[in-house]
């Protein structure tokens, strides 16, 4: 076994994968602990040491994968994802690039590439992007129409919320998230008691309908992904069975030829 194959075998073992996941989790915890002045005063040196060790582990693991897979390394988008995260961590966190020190927590995103179930979820979300784009466009159109109507109807009543279109857009986005919409509606209903109709219809259309559409698109994408993986998993045994049947047929033909040769030898011996 060559050195490249040996490194690849080590990287693909379950122990190595779990070790990388453990380092990612520990590093994410230590970066979070560095935000506490209390912990930094008492264990700042230890936290910095763990952070540097984790960065060395990530760099060595990435270099080992590059050595083991060579050209195939760059054909996997998850490898590009890990490379960018590690490259950002290697930028010196001093001078004009000191703001990048806060981006070290992005290393926790390596859990997405390290855990297959997370990769599956992200893959489903990416597959659902086209469907989400149309839903987002519909939602933006609904918010825009509602903002124009609200500005015309309620701008004089509650100017701090609906006096101009940008402010109405922000208020309606706040209502869509469910934040303080009751108080907003009460302020308007003091002057226009029928305003509850507008808010209820808007909330039903923007929140419940749009949210359910988002969920439906994502679930459909995940089901399609599961069906695709199921077909690939079931296709492999069927191919193996076909190969086995072909080998069995070849063996049967060989047995027939051997039997014929033996019978011919027996006949020739009897004739002599």
CATH architecture of one domain: Up-down Bundle
Uncertain runs with pLDDT below 50, 5 residues or more? 232-236
- Main β sheet profile: none
pLDDT average, as an integer?
A: 80
* Cα-based radius of gyration, to the nearest Å: 32 Å
- Number of E-state strands: 0
Beta fraction of the residues?
under 5%
Q: Classify the secondary structure makeup into a structural class.
A: mainly alpha
* Distance between the first and last residues' Cα: 57 Å
The total count of helices amounts to 11
* CATH H-level superfamily title of one domain: Voltage-gated potassium channels. Chain C
- CATH topology annotation of one domain: Four Helix Bundle (Hemerythrin (Met), subunit A)
What fraction, in percent, of the residue positions are helical?
over 70%
- Overall shape: flat
Detailed description of the structure:
The chain is an all-alpha fold and 272 residues long. The chain has a domain at 3-114: Up-down Bundle (Four Helix Bundle (Hemerythrin (Met), subunit A)), CATH 1.20.120. It is 81% helix and 0% strand. The protein is built from eleven helices and no strands. Helix 3 packs across helix 4 and helix 7 crosses helix 9. Residues 232-236 have low confidence and may be disordered.
Give me a quick take on this structure.
The chain has 272 residues and is mainly α. Helices cover 81% and strands 0% of the residues.
Keywords:
Four Helix Bundle (Hemerythrin (Met), subunit A), 272 residues
């Amino acid at each position: 076994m060559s050195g490249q194959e040996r490194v690849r075998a080590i990287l693909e073992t379950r122990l190595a994968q779990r070790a990388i996941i453990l380092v990612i989790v520990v590093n994410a915890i230590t970066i979070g602990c560095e935000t506490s002045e209390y912990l930094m005063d008492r264990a700042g040196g230890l936290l910095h040491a763990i952070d540097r060790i984790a960065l060395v582990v990530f760099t060595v693991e990435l270099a080992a994968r590059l050595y083991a897979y060579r050209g195939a390394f760059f054909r996997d988008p998850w490898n590009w994802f890990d490379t960018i995260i590690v490259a950002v961590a290697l930028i010196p966190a001093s001078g004009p690039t000191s703001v990048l020190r806060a981006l070290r927590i992005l290393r926790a995103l390596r859990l997405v590439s390290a855990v297959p179930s997370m990769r599956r979820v992200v893959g489903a979300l990416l597959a659902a992007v086209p469907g989400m784009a149309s839903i987002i466009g519909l939602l933006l159109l609904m918010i825009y129409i509602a903002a124009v109507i609200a500005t015309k109807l309620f701008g004089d009543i509650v100017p701090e919320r609906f006096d101009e279109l940008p402010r109405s857009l922000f208020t309606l986005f706040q209502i869509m998230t469910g934040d303080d919409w009751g108080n907003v509606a009460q302020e308007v209903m003091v002057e226009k008691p029928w305003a509850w109709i507008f808010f209820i219809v808007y909330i039903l259309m923007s929140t419940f309908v749009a949210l359910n559409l988002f969920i439906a698109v994502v679930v459909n994408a995940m089901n399609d992904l599961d069906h695709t993986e199921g077909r690939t998993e079931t296709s492999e045994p069927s191919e193996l069975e076909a190969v086995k049947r072909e080998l069995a047929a070849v063996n049967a033909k060989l047995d027939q030829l051997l039997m014929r040769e033996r019978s011919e030898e027996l006949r020739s011996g009897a004739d002599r």
